[in-house]
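Table S4 entry, tRNA pseudouridine synthase A.
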Amino acid sequence: MRIALGISYNGQAYQGWQSQPSGLTVQDRLEAALSKFADQRIATLCAGRTDAGVHALMQVVHFDTDRIRDTHAWVRGTNANLVKNISVQWAVSTSDSFHCRASAISRRYAYVVLESPVRPSVDAGRVGWCYEPLDQTAMETAAKHLLGEQDFTSFRASQCQALSPVKTMVKIDISKRGAYWRFDFEANAFLHHMIRNIMGCLIQVGRTRRPAEWMLEVLHARDRRAAAPTFSPDGLYFLGPQYDPQWGMPNRTPAFDMLP
């Protein structure tokens, strides 16, 4: 049978999602816990790889197994063998035609930034930081240039393995609560470092170092050198994919209520 899981994790201690020889990745820890619970080797596929230091509120994975367990057992049994900063949130038994990556309609990320003259402390590693005031109107104007189907070459990491830089940005929402900014992104897919590179540019605009129209210049340049430096991974959260309702996959986890 094919099982889909929703996973939440704090990425500070890991070298990203994808398995590495060091074993210090989220995938390595999850597969070790699953394999121990199922008493057989379990290999997973994920909806979207995350970089070192990036968090997830609802990473979705799937795997195939001949072990018969109810969905509650997959959650509780796997969590019993996981470290505290990774947790299975839900499990769904699904058909072989479901694929956590290929079946996704879109993917969602949020970036949280602390605006403060003093660096983060209790939330260090969980938020980005800007020590200067940010101009919301300027950032929203700049963000509008990125909506729709675009060539995002200027925001693409050199090691990106995507076949095409053309993606469709569905939404960019910017809001603030207290000293914390939240940037929400939704697209059909994202390139390697795409959000962190966009964030670098938005922060430059928000600090009034660049005008809002500069974002359009960067986009049209189709050259990574035209954009701002890559922003920190600390405040980036993978909110998870969106699926057609036919698959019966949850759309959120309780961790969604944590962010401002």
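The chain has five helices and ten strands.
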